[in-house]
Structures are given as C-alpha cells and as structure tokens.
Amino acid sequence: MNAVLDPVAALGRAVLERVRKSGMLALFALEAVSHLVRPPFYWRVFLSALIEIGFFSLPVVALTALFSGGVIALQSYAGFSQYHVQSAIADVVALSVTRELGPVLAGLMVAGRVGAAMSAEIGTMRVTDQIDALRTLSTHPMKYLVTPRLLAGVLALPFLVVVADILGVMGGFIVATSKLGFTPDAYISATFAGLAASDVLVGLAKAAVFGFLIALLGCYHGYTSRGGAEGVGAATTAAVVAASILLLAFDYLLTDLFFAS
Predict the structure, then answer these.
(1) Can you state the angle between helices 197-223 and 102-110, rounded to 10 degrees?
(2) 211 neighbors 53 (Cβ within 8 angstroms)
(3) Under a CB-based contact definition with an 8 Å cutoff, are residues 126 and 142 in contact?
(4) Count of beta carbons in the 10 Å neighbourhood of residue 83
(5) Using one digit for the tens of pLDDT, what is the confidence trace for 148-178?
(6) Peptide bond preceding 148: is omega within 30 degrees of 0, i.e. cis?
(7) Which of 87, 119, 192, 246 could form a disulfide with 239 if both were Cys (CB 3.0 to 4.6 A apart)?
(8) Could you tell me which of 68, 55, 54 has the C-alpha nearest to residue 169?
C-alpha cells in the first residue's frame, strides 16, 4: 500500500509547496504595488534602477535584436523562395520582431542581466542583516528596495523594446538589401504596408508585463533568500530561471489574448 500512496503523497506535497510559494509571491507583489500610492517614494532608488535596467541593458538588447532580424530575413528567404513569395519577407520580419522577438528577446536578456543583479544585491543585504538595519532606521524595506525597482522595470522594458524593434527591422533590412537582392525603397514600403500600430502597441504592452515580472522575481528571490553566500547564489539562479519561464508563459497568454481572434 505504501508503494502506491507514497508517490501520491510526494506529489501532493510538491503541489502544495508550489501553491504556497505562488501565494507568497502574489502577496509580495500586492504589498510592493500598494506602496506606490503610499508616500514616501524613493526617487533616487527609482532613477538608479531605471538607468541600470534601461540604459545599461541597451548594448546587449541592441545586438541581439539586430542579428535576430537578420537571421529572420535569411530563414524566411530560404523558405519563401520555394513558393516564390519573397516579397513577404519584409512583412514577416516586421511582424515577428514587433509582436514577439522584440519583447521576448529583450525580456530574456534583461532577466539574465538585471534580474540576477537585483536578486544578488537584495539577497546580500538580507544575509548581512542590512534589511533589518533599514527597519531600525524607520525605512520600510519593501518601499525602499522593491517598489522603485518594480516601477523602473515596467517603464524601462518598453523603451528597450522600441530600440529592439527598430534594430530588428533594420537587421532584416540590411540583410535583405545587401544579400537577398531587395531594393531599399521596395523593402521599406513593404515593411510599412504590412505593419500596423496595434502590432507595436501589443509588443510594448507585453514589455511592460515582462518588466514587472523580471523585477518582481528578482526582488522576491533576493528578499526571501537565506543561508549565506550559498543561499544568495541559489536565489540568483532561481530568479533568472523563474523569470524566463514566466516570461514565456505570459508571452503565450498575452498572444492568445490579443491575437486569438
């Protein structure tokens, strides 16, 4: 009997643990968001996080988007040339970059770079009792450490996605005109003809959600880390992995919400 019940019990414990952690994350998010409407707001921390997320992530996001746009153009040409519909390449590059690749690639790059840094910074403060020291100085740790970073993530990611969209389309343009025989005027005309404002806006909406998730998970895993340097390392890894998985999951949900019809 135990051979049958033990795996079921283990599965039940695992499910309950996931539910418990999901509830803790939801409560953590609600508390952090609630501090947005309760003064004071730490503008210096917010601006520092905004620069860290938005400005210093520009190089990696720009290079990723530029080369991804070029790869999409090459791969599209290889497939479309079999059916003599090469003229659709510009449309495919623009839609792929603005709807999906711009937000997703920017989000993944920022998750790996900024999410890990947030988790490591706050986790180090946790294990060295600096968060407790904030309380003794009458400073709410959530208001000081988490809320400004959440707002910075929501605002910085759309900016990065705008840059990624422009450079992704530019990458496709460079490859199409230099290697695939397209004329610049024809490619640009096809790009604007196939691209709608709603495609760009949906990508920016996704970016805002992704920025919130990345900052939330980076702060949460750092804030709840335990166990010294080893715990900080584990929290950093967990923050990046969880943010990447949730980002892809929410990408599907948002795509289904906006484009299912």
Answers:
(1) 20
(2) yes
(3) no
(4) 8
(5) 999 999 999 999 999 999 999 999 999 988 8
(6) no
(7) 119
(8) 68
Global pTM reads: 0.90
- In terms of Cβ atoms closer than 10 Å to its own Cβ (0-12, 13-18, 19+), residue 259 is exposed
Neighbours of 95 (CB within 10 A): 19
At 155, give phi and psi (nearest 5°). -85, -30
Q: pLDDT tens for residues 98-132?
A: 988 899 999 999 999 999 999 999 999 988 888 88
Question: Which of 219, 248, 222 has its CA nearest to residue 235?
Answer: 222
ω before 184 within 30° of 0 (cis)?
A: no
Q: Between the CA of residue 31 and those of 37, 38, 49, 99, 154, what are the distances in Å?
A: 11, 11, 19, 31, 16
Encoded tokens for 113: 């770079």
CA neighbor of 224 nearest in space, from 118, 109, 135: 118
Contact of 98 with 165, CB cutoff 8 Å = yes
SS3 190: helix
Neighbouring CB atoms inside 10 A of 224's CB total 18
- R_g of the chain, CA atoms, integer Å: 22
Tell me the Ramachandran region of residue 42: left when phi exceeds 0, alpha when psi lies from -120 to 50, beta otherwise.
beta
